[in-house]
UniProtKB/TrEMBL annotation:
CDD domains listed in its UniProt record: PH-GRAM_WBP2, STKc_Cdc7
UniProt keyword annotation of Transport present: no
Superkingdom: Eukaryota
Record protein name field: non-specific serine/threonine protein kinase
Domain (Protein kinase) ranges: 163-603
Region (Disordered): 105-131, 376-403, 514-569, 854-880
UniProt EC number: 2.7.11.1
Length: 880
């Protein structure tokens, strides 16, 4: 299924859309200059009065001579009239469509200090740009698309009630995809299931961030053609539903049928054409690409699903943010664990321990028969060309296997008609994409049939490896083509031949991650429309966030990584070669798994949590899997929850009830059954878990679960006694971050309860099934509070301002501030206790550090010579 989702967004600063934050910055600078110089600021149309310098006189004399040669004498240059001097024109006489006109804001309005209004303007302009992409296309194409949209609206009348279709994103053999605005996102649908619950430290967290109330939500509508096989349609919808919650995977929002028309709704994902960036993307960008891809494949394969059509067109990657999402499951299939009667492979099917299968024991197949087959194949390879071919009437048993895929991306086992295919075929396809990046050539293999495709691979890996690969699948490989050598070449040699400059660092492209000079759009998940999503094409449940908006000129990033050195680039290339050899191994059982690829030195990042801690388990697995089950009658997924001390079964839909890493699912994070386990777990995890927005562990009473050695000092007793106001700067992406912002801020305010312990401040909003708060909880370690300031305004209640140092990936950024207001007389007592607790905590931490220092050990005077374990010089006055 070759469906293409494309969205063109200019990266040229001279071609940015009217909504780009930079235009706003330029406008503000212009207004500021006007306010400084007055309304009579000189322009290119003004005279040179007051500038009668020799250089200017010489310049204008040159212009006079230039124009005189053309028979044109420039007229006297006059001053541009003051706006008040302009004649009044009645525009109503010449405007038939006044509503379609856009009126600019008067210059005097540019000096108003209205941050909220400016923020709304930025978002509104961005949404307007997304809605008007159709009008950037040629008139003929616009007319064609408008006819298609009208046809779809007539074929599925109910579609227009909830979605406003505004453009076509792409067309394929079996479907077309359109961009639309979800008119009922905020008022009609419960979106928690497809948003998922990825934690803030996950690269897929953007998928779980709900859209800001009132914002426009863009979606992709996939219209599956009526000529498609009904079973194919059912299979695609079913698989997409099972892939809900998978990281960096296009989520299925909903799907429905009207007569013979079937449509599927997915999040809209920004992306760029692979051909536009694969030669320019830096090593850091390539790593971001494959981290997203292999996280998606790991989650998909864990659910027993093979994508089968992994290729650049089906991976929606935005090179500006480093986020990508897998899409188009039209060819996807489920792994079959059964063993065929004829032509069984010499390897097993996929299992939990061996995702790509393993070679069977020698007692499970006929060794003598295999040796005989190999001998015959090698004899045939020496035959002359007139004896090459296959019988006109072939009486051999017909081999049946799934051969779906795109030419140039199919693995050897697919071409050899393996009957027990695993997710290894997707890993091979990912390896082909890595080849494109390393060689700088796309495409590479362009065979017209299976035999030719096998010969292309054999030309590289050699005859010996192809024979061994064929035997693994109960096949033989025979060829008399002299150019295919016995040993072949390594993938490294192949790349170096195709790209002799592979070890020369690429010049960082300021358009792409992580060297973006300007951040041209909002952080995925916090903007008014979804990202390409990449890490998390996106959605979430647990965390929530308001839109990121900029009211100031978009800054030049101060944390742009330094360009790679020759040594660092060589190290990256060497690691890439190592990974390439493992993902392109011709034997599927020896090919690296997606999880293994994520832990490979090329993709592993020591500064980030291990992937196992962020892996979304399939339903029924994970730490709380014993409380999950499938109803044997209705086949519905259910979880057992405790309510008032009683066990109750609750039905869940696809995407709900997923345990993340070592954490329980959203239904059991508040279960007292897990209090001890979770408390122990938190105490053993990194500091990152203790400071995060919307990731506080709660018990059945909706109270925070204490950390190890944590005790409560004071707490409020009413749900709305305290107000927390957060101001979170939207930081640009760092060298290792998955996403970045646009230099603005997001502000959130909620009422709830406050706990102060000997380790942290914990704020929790009350339960509300009707309205979801902007954020549900916040945990702040006391040693992360940089400063506190007690404010006593002339008007209004007193409040406390805290500046905090966030943990990486916890949902907060550098410069975050918190305002705390009490709705009773408890603020003074709280401030006093907070300062004393902080001081004691800092003192105890410092004392512990001093006690834990490894002081040098010295031997006594009676010790044997040379037995000292000291690693320091002998202290003055000490006689050894």
């Amino acid at each position: 299924m070759a469906t293409v989702l494309l969205s063109q967004h200019s990266s040229n600063p001279l071609e940015v859309g009217s909504s780009d934050a930079r235009n706003k910055a330029y406008h503000q600078e212009y207004i500021s200059a006007q306010n400084t110089n007055g309304h009579f600021t000189l322009t290119s149309e003004d005279g040179h009065h007051g500038l009668d310098r020799p250089e200017m006189v010489q310049y204008h004399n040159h212009l006079a001579r230039l124009y005189s040669k053309q028979g044109v004498v420039p007229s006297t240059i006059k001053r541009k009239p003051h706006p008040d001097e302009l004649p009044v024109v009645n525009f109503d006489e010449s405007m038939e469509y006044a509503d379609d006109m856009h009126f600019e804001t008067p210059h005097d309005m540019g000096t108003l200090d209205d941050d909220d209004a400016d923020e709304e303007d930025v978002d509104a302009d961005g949404e307007t740009d997304e809605e008007k992409t159709l009008f950037l296309k040629p008139p003929e194409e616009q007319q064609e698309i408008q006819l298609e949209i009208a046809n779809l609206s007539n074929a599925v009348p109910s579609l227009s009630e909830d979605y406003a279709i505004i453009d076509r994103l792409g067309t394929g053999t079996f479907s077309s995809v359109y961009k639309a605005v979800d008119l009922a996102y905020h008022s009609k649908w419960d979106n928690t299931a497809w948003h998922g619950s990825h934690p803030p430290i996950s690269s897929a967290h953007y998928q779980s961030v709900p859209y800001h109330p009132g914002s426009k939500v863009f979606v992709a509508i996939k219209r599956i053609y009526v000529t498609s096989n009904p079973e194919r349609i059912r299979n695609e919808i079913s698989i997409m539903e099972d892939c809900r919650g998978c990281r960096h995977t296009s989520q299925l929002i909903t799907a429905f049928r009207h007569r013979d028309q079937v449509v599927a709704i997915m999040p809209y994902s920004r992306n760029e054409d692979f051909r536009d960036y694969y030669k320019d993307l830096s090593m850091a960008g390539i790593k971001a690409y494959f981290r997203c891809m292999f996280r998606s494949l790991r989650d998909i394969h864990a659910r027993g699903i093979i994508h089968r059509d992994v290729k650049p067109a089906n991976f929606l990657f935005d090179p500006r943010t480093g986020i990508g999402a897998m899409c188009d499951f039209g060819l996807a299939s489920r792994m079959d664990g059964s063993t065929p009667v004829h032509g069984a492979c010499l390897h097993t099917s996929a299992t939990r321990e061996h995702p790509h299968g393993k070679i069977r024991g020698r007692n499970e197949y006929d060794v003598d028969l295999l040796k005989k087959m190999q001998k015959e194949a090698r004899q045939k390879s020496s035959w002359p060309s007139d004896r090459v071919g296959y019988p006109d009437k072939d009486t051999r048993p017909l081999s049946k296997a799934n051969r779906a895929g795109t030419r140039g991306f199919r693995a050897p086992e697919v071409l050899l008609k393996c009957s027990q295919q695993t997710g290894a075929i997707d890993v091979w396809s990912a390896g082909m994409i890595l080849l494109f990046f390393l060689t700088g050539k796309f495409p590479l293999l362009q065979s017209s049939d299976d035999i030719e495709a096998l010969m292309e691979i054999a030309t590289i890996v050699g005859r010996q490896k192809m024979e061994k690969t064929a035997i693994l699948h109960s096949r033989t490989f025979a060829t008399n083509v002299p150019s295919i050598s016995q040993e072949g070449m390594s993938w490294r040699e192949f790349v170096e031949k195709q790209n002799p400059n592979i070890f020369k660092p690429r010049t960082p492209d300021p358009r792409y991650y992580p060297y973006n000079n300007f951040v041209t759009h909002n952080t995925p998940g916090t903007s008014s429309h979804p990202p390409p999503s990449s890490s998390s094409s996106y959605s979430y449940r647990q965390p929530s966030s308001s839109r990121s908006r900029s009211t100031t000129p978009t800054p030049i990033r101060a944390d742009i990584p330094a360009p790679p050195t020759t040594d660092s680039h060589r190290a990256d290339v060497e690691a890439a070669f190592s990974l390439l050899a493992e993902v392109m191994h011709p034997e599927s059982t020896r090919r690296i798994t997606p999880r293994g690829a994520l832990y490979h030195p090329f993709l592993a990042d020591p500064s980030e949590p291990e992937d196992d801690e962020l892996f979304p388990h399939p339903f029924g697995e994970g730490v709380c899997g014993k409380w999950h089950f499938v109803d044997p009658v209705t086949e519905e997924q259910c979880v057992i929850v405790h309510d008032g001390g009683k066990e109750q079964a609750r039905r869940v839909v696809a995407g709900e009830g997923m345990a993340i890493g070592s954490w329980p699912c959203e239904f059991h994070r508040k279960e007292s059954e897990f209090d001890y386990e979770v408390s122990t777990l938190i105490g053993q995890t990194k500091h990152i878990y203790t400071m995060a927005l919307d990731w506080t562990m709660l018990d059945a009473r909706h109270h925070p679960i204490p950390l190890r050695d944590e005790t409560t000092i004071m707490s409020t007793d009413r749900d709305s006694q305290v107000e927390f106001s957060l101001t979170i700067p939207d930081a640009p992406p760092s060298g290792t971050a998955a996403t970045g912002g646009n230099g603005g801020v997001k502000r959130m305010k909620e009422r709830g309860r406050l706990w102060m312990t000997n380790q942290r401040l914990i704020f929790i909003t009350p339960k509300d099934d009707k309205m979801k708060p902007s954020f549900e909880s916040l945990s702040v370690p006391l040693d992360a509070v940089l400063s506190s300031k007690f404010e006593q305004p002339y008007f209004g209640a007193n409040y406390l301002v805290l500046d905090v140092k966030p943990s990486t990936g916890g949902g907060l950024t550098d410069g975050t501030s918190i305002e705390i207001r009490f709705y009773d007389r408890g603020l003074f007592e709280f401030v006093s206790v907070l300062e004393k607790t902080r001081e004691r905590l800092v003192f105890m931490r410092r004392q512990a550090m001093e006690d834990d220092e490894n002081l040098p050990a010295y031997t006594s005077s009676g010790s044997a010579a040379g037995s000292s374990t000291s690693y320091a010089d002998t202290p003055p006055g000490y006689d050894a």
